[in-house]
Amino acid sequence: MGSSFGRLFRVSTFGESHGRGVGAIVDGVPPGLPLSEADLQPQLDRRRPGQSRLTTDRAESDTVTILSGVELGVTLGTPIGLFVPNRDMRPGDYQEMSNIPRPSHADFSYQMKYGVRASSGGGRSSARETIGRVAAGAIAEHWLRRAYGVETVAWVSSVGPVDAALPDPETLTRDQVDATALRCPDEAAREAMVREIQAARDDQDSVGGVVSCVCRGLPAGWGEPVFEKLEALLAQAMLSIPATKGFEIGSGFAGARLRGSVHNDPFVRKGGRLGTASNRSGGVQGGISNGEPLLFRVAFKPPATIGKAQATADFEGQETVLEAKGRHDPCVVPRAVPIVEAMAALVLADLALRQAARDHSRTK
Q1: Structure pTM?
Q2: Which of the following CATH numbers is that of domain 4-361: 1.10.150.120, 3.30.450.20, 1.10.238.10, 3.60.150.10?
Q3: Beta-carbon neighbour count of residue 98 at 10 Å?
Q4: If 0-12 CB within 10 Å is exposed, 13-18 middle and 19+ buried, where does residue 135 land?
Q5: How is the beta sheet containing 209-216 ordered, strand by strand?
Q6: Local confidence pLDDT in tens for the 364 residues of the chain
Q7: What are the structural domain ranges in the chain?
């Protein structure tokens, strides 16, 4: 149950970080969609480890194989099976930690829930689980782009105490984001961010950050009030990503400091449609898209596994000192960018199918 997401466009992920492989089953993809591994691999390449000194040096190609649901280059409407093998596993790196729950990691909570856990690399709590999401999200993106012209672009907007200037969300492209390994389009802030990550890595420590995302081209009307509002499903999707600690849309928490006369988005004529002069709502009103760009932010905590010595306790409650082994990101946000895009696409694809069914059944 907990490994599946979505209603009509439904994704179930599987696999552990140091098992044979990871992947996903994607159900509800419309038939007749041209699709191949080449449509999915670019997003997996953006997520994979070992891209730069800012990330873990685990060496994985993360090459995806489509196992089912596609024939002669088009989707059949049946479940699509996706698989990515694990190649560079080192479960021995975790032997010393088998009886010590890592501080702020999921070792303890998984053990309490199941009575057993994958002690190598965190199993399902590892960020490696997100490979299935990214592959599935790439399918959702591919369909949304062809069917509706929807574009999704995420970028690193802060690392530790360093904030980037807000780019123009109407024109920002993935090529601009990917111009550097950090995936921050603000050149001035980027240099300080890199120093922040490198300093944490040199100190065997870690640092957190924020990923911002814009989704353009949404028509007005997507979202299912009252319990499955667009922003509510986005919040669920984003907070299901490992290491996330916060979600805000539009003006977010800063909007709580404003008066309504300042915060409101007045309506104006935009070409052939009604739009808003500002976008403090972040593209959503009443839980339904209003036709403006969907703009939100996701906060990521510092990675829990660090090499720095930490005073803690083992599972028996005995005091000990943990110096974690293994290969881990000093900061997750550069690799989190395609994960955020993927989860946004999965939410939007599901809501698009629901709205299409509603529109089709509407009495003329």
Answers
A1: 0.94
A2: 3.60.150.10
A3: 13
A4: buried
A5: 162-163, 151-159, 209-216, 294-300, 244-249
A6: 789 999 999 999 999 888 889 999 999 999 999 999 999 999 999 998 766 667 665 557 899 999 999 999 999 999 999 999 998 655 555 566 778 999 999 999 999 999 988 766 677 888 899 999 999 999 999 999 999 999 999 999 999 999 999 999 999 999 999 999 999 999 999 999 999 999 999 999 999 999 999 999 999 999 999 999 999 999 999 999 999 999 999 999 999 999 999 999 999 999 889 999 999 999 999 999 999 999 999 999 999 999 999 999 999 999 999 988 766 889 999 999 999 999 999 999 999 999 999 998 876 6
A7: 4-361
Contact 136, 24 (CB under 8 A): yes
* Six-digit token string for 207: 């640092």
Q: CB atoms < 10 A from the CB of 83, how many?
A: 20
Beta-ladder partners of 71: 74
How far lies 176's CA from each of 47, 138, 187, in Å? 17, 19, 11
| 318-355: burial string, b at 16+ Cβ within 10 Å, e else | eeeebebebbbbbbbbbbbbbbbbbbbbbbbbbbbbbb
Copy the structure tokens of residue 10.
């439904």
